[in-house]
Amino acid sequence: MSRSHVGTSRTLLVTGASRGIGAAVAVRCAQAGWDVAVNYTRDAAAAERVAQAVRSAGRQAVALQADVANEAALMAMFARIDADMPPLGGLVNNAGVVDAMARVDETTLARLQRMFAINVFGTFLCSREAVRRMSSRHGGNGGAIVNLSSVAAKLGGPGWYVDYAASKGAIDTFTVGLAREVATEGIRVNAVRPGIIDTDIHASGGQPDRAHQSTALIPMQRPGTADEVAEAVQWLLSDAARYTTGAIIDVSGGR
Questions:
Q1: Residue 130 sits in a domain of what CATH number?
Q2: Which residue of 78, 103, 190, 243 shows the fewest CB atoms closer than 10 Å?
Q3: Number of folded domains in the chain?
């Protein structure tokens, strides 16, 4: 159901926002004045809890199920935002997956296809739809995109997940290219490159304790938190970063 919108309300879409960094970004940005579309893939209850936290901050929220690797589902999600929320003004491409540890000589095509479909293709497609709505070339009022990369893009992930690192390397290149492509159209595009962050994503890769077991690899000798990453994302979305585009900021404890 569509509704009229007044004032300067603007919507931020955060993909993969039911947990971890995505959830922290959604809540922090709500506190900074954004209405938030909370995307999730499977856990509707968790996404609704995040949406409620956004509402508790005094902002509008909607929880939207869509696998970002599924173009039809993704298009339906953007249509819901168009109908039910204020105009889109920001996108955080946070949805991503890791997998169990595997060397390149142990990698399957199915694993690669899943990894790149979500981590790379989903980011491209969500960004495409955001540009179509925010770019002055399309009659939009501008906006900002923040992509979630990983320090793995610099380190390569040897012996762990070279495929994941490669997918995030693609995100770094995409960030720079899109930033320059839309720089005169009112859209800024940046990325945050987290290091080892204490979130549930490690469990999905079969190593729930990895964040705390890896402190020796981190110059600051501790894993980061989702809130620490969210602070960087929120700054890049804000007017305080109005002259920043094509940047990739490491939030990695010096790694």
A1: 3.40.50.720
A2: 243
A3: 1
Domain annotation covers residue 5: no
What's the one-letter identity of residue 19? R
DSSP 3-state helix, strand, coil percentages of the chain (rounded to 5)? Answer: 45, 15, 35
Token pair listed for 107: 């990698």
Cα separations in angstroms, 102 against 3, 107, 111, 116, 157:
49, 6, 10, 16, 10
Per residue in 37-68, pLDDT (tens digit) is 999 999 999 999 999 999 999 999 999 999 99
Reported as a single tens digit per residue, the pLDDT across 79-92 is 999 999 999 999 99
Overall pTM surpassing 0.70 (yes/no): yes
Phi-psi region of 86 (alpha: psi -120 to 50; beta: other; left: phi over 0): beta
The closest of 149, 166, 59, 181 to 115, measured between CA atoms, is 166
Contact status, residue 225 vs residue 197, Cβ threshold 8 Å:
yes
What amino acid positions are annotated as catalytic residues?
Answer: 164
